[in-house]
Amino acid sequence: MTSIILLSIFGIINLFVGFMKSKRILLPLSLLFLAVVFGANLFSWNEAQSYFNHMLTIDNYAVAFTGIMVLATLLLLPFSQHYIEEANENLAEFYSLLLFSLVGAIMMVSYENMLMLFIGIEILSIAMYVLAGSDKRRLRSNEAALKYFLMGAFFTGVLLFGIVLIYGATGSFYLTDIAATAAVNDGTVNAMFTLGLLLLVIGISFKISAAPFHFWAPDVYEGTPTLFTSYMSTVVKIAGVAAFYKLMAAAFAASYAAWFPTLIAITVLTLVVGNIGAVVQTNFKRMLAYSSVSHAGYLLMALVAFNERSDASILFYSLSYALATIVAFAVLQYVSEQRNGDETYAAFNGLGKTNPLLAFAMTVAMCSLSGIPLTAGFFGKLFVFTAVVQDARLMWLVVVAVLMAAVGIYYYFKVVIAMYMQPAADAAKIRIGSFASFMLIFITVFTILLGIAPALVSDLL
Amino acid sequence: MNFILSSLIFTPLLAALVVLLLPVRRQKAIKAVTLLGTLVQMVLAILLYFRFDGSAFANGQQGYQFVEKLHWIGFSLGTLGRFQIDYFVGVDGISISMVLLTGIIGVIGVISSWTITKNVKGYFLLYLLLLTSVTGCFLALDFFLFYLFFEFMLLPMYFLIGLWGGPKREYAAIKFFIYTLVGSLFILIVMIGLYTSVIDPQATAVQLGLIGAGGTAAPNAILQVQQMLQQNMVSSADMVRTFSIPAMMEPANFIPGSLLHVLSGVELWYLPIRFIAFLLLFAGFAIKVPSVPVHTWLPDAHVEAPTPVSVLLAAILLKVGGYGLIRIVYPIFPDAGAYFSILVGGLGVLSIIYGALNALAMNDLKKLVAYSSVSHMGFVLLGLASLTTEGVNGAVYMMFSHGIISAMLFLVVGVIYDRAHDRAIQNFRGLAKVMPAYTTFVIIAFFASLGLPGFSGFISELLVLLGGFSAPEATGMLPRWLTVVAVFGLLLSAAYYLWALQRMFFGKYWIFPELRAKATITDLNFREYLMLAPLAVLALLFGILPNLLLDKISVAVTGMTQLTLQNGQEQLELVLSSLIR
Question: Do A421 and B169 touch (CB under 8 A)?
Answer without folding.
Answer: yes
